[in-house]
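User: Can you predict the 3D structure for this chain?
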Amino acid sequence: MRLDLTADQRLLQSATADFLAGAGSVAVTRALHAEGRSVDRDTWRRGAELGWTSLLVPEDLGGGSVSGAGLIDATIIAERFGAVAAPGPFLPVNIVAFALAEEVLAREPNAAAHTGLLKRLLAGDAIATWACCPPGGGWDPAAEAVAAVPEGDGYRLTGMHEGVEAAADADAFLVLARIPAGLTQFIVPATAGGLTVAPMGSLDLTRGFGRVSYDGVVVGPEAVVGLPGEAAGPVERQFQVAVALQCAELVGVMDTVLGFTRQWLADRFTFGRPLESYQALKHRFADLATWSHAAAAATYAAAEAVQERRADAAEVVSIAKAYVGQRATDIVQDCVQLHGGLGVTWEHDIHVYLRRATVGRVTWGTPSQHRRRVADQLGA
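Assistant: Here is the predicted structure, written as structure tokens:
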């Protein structure tokens, strides 16, 4: 948890925490999972009223943040989502809203064509997600999983994306593809002919993922986001935002799991003594807490670097994901062991957090992939 929050940021944090305590609790997540759902539309609209969808969009476009640093404020919300393992497409919707807002601010040719979708995203009336990861390739936009061939004034899309969050609930997709001139992004409605969504199995009970296939999907020139062939820069920026938000979610996961594990060590007695009184467990828990604080510091440093558009933002973000992604699963796994037999039961909530942390570790680049990114950036 950040200690340098302003009064407005603390109000945002507490309002989100209070709302998610009821509408986004683990009990709600379990109920949605039992119904085969991962998103409740009414809850999402109410969250949009709290500002969940507007933080990365400037005020003159209908958005706004409490501090003027939208990504920093968004990490506060993301951390609360992780803290209660809340369902909802917070990350993908904000990435798409961010991409469209950047397009409008840059006065790109098709900006006006996408303002309607942006308004619906801000109001919580629509859900959109970013489809960009090739099958089995993790994060690699250069893998050319989707090809966009010019056809008339528009393009024909062929290929597939995997691991698309909230794919089954999305009304529109921000699709990353490659045209002869280079990487290009398109807004493709879920109802487009030739577009199909197949649910993917996932360890995570709190979020749904899907495989999006494009079997000759035809889009007009107005579907292009930004300039054709020049999406590499915007895609990198979107990626940095996504990783910063994901790391913040993992910080929330660690904070909650450590909190109820510490309470368990205080409440559980063996041989007439609480578990927390044993020196070996004290040292073990101290290590976990230290790793958690370091993960939080790395996450906040990454968010600030991206917010300020610093030249080293890509490097700092990858350092954060390499550390946070690794430590999140290490910490939660160790907390499972500290709970003993109780930690491996379906009834205890710790497995919900472990599942979320495990999936968070491998999406938007694994720790090893981010270490490679850092090495590449350093010229190693």
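The radius of gyration is 21 Å. The beta strands are 128-131, 146-151, 154-165, 172-179, 182-189, 195-200, 209-219, 224-225, 269-270, 273-274.
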